[in-house]
Design goal:
Strands 3-2-1-5-4 form a five-stranded antiparallel sheet, sandwiched between helices. It has 181 residues and is an alpha+beta fold. It is built from four helices and five strands, in the order H-H-H-E-E-E-H-E-E. A hairpin with a 2-residue loop joins strand 1 and strand 2. The longest helix is centred in the first third of the chain and has 68 residues.
């Protein structure tokens, strides 16, 4: 017995609902899951890049600060420093005067943040007072500044700070003027 047009349409509709719709739903779910997985991977990659970039910058600042400290430990050649360290050991003067080497600059400052002496290379001559003030203020804010001279190792006598000079970041290594061995 031949099927009527309505019965044939009804069979097609049943076949579509029974087989086609679940396949399309499965494809849609698969696409949605794939997009979600790709989005999650992209977010993970973004977070990893951010962490790695921050670590890279932090390590660079740390190594530059250590380098500045190592350079700074080799200096302290002013008349007052020589007099109060080499000629007669004066702990009060030593605890009240600190030395910093910053980006082609040398700054001798007191714990209250006033600078006593500064030198900058020719490149920074027009900014000498600003650099000296920034270095002295940032250095004076370091915790336990007076105790640096009592550190057990030369590396322990160095503290670091950072300051901004216009668009530049100053890496500041601060150490007390100490007696040379």
């Amino acid at each position: 017995m031949p099927k009527t047009a309505n019965a044939a349409a009804l069979d097609v509709r049943r076949a579509w609902l029974g087989v086609g719709a679940p396949i399309i739903a499965l494809v849609a779910v698969t696409i949605a899951l794939a997009v979600a997985v790709f989005l999650q991977l992209a977010q993970d990659q973004d977070r990893a890049f951010e962490r790695n970039s921050a670590t890279l910058v932090q390590n660079d600042l740390e190594s530059r600060g250590q380098m500045m400290g190592a350079v700074g430990l080799d200096y302290a050649n002013w008349e007052a420093a020589f007099e109060n360290i080499h000629v007669r050991w004066n702990p009060e003067w030593i605890e009240d005067n600190f030395y910093s080497s910053v980006a082609d600059s040398l700054v001798l400052f007191r714990q209250n943040g006033t600078f006593r002496y500064s030198w900058v290379s020719e490149t920074f001559e027009d900014q000498e007072e600003r650099i000296a003030t920034l270095v002295a203020e940032a250095g004076a804010q370091l915790p336990n500044l007076r105790h640096l001279s009592r550190a057990a190792t030369p590396g322990g006598t160095v503290a670091r700070a950072y300051a901004r000079l216009d668009d530049s970041l100053l890496i500041i290594a601060v150490m007390p003027v100490t007696h040379e061995d």
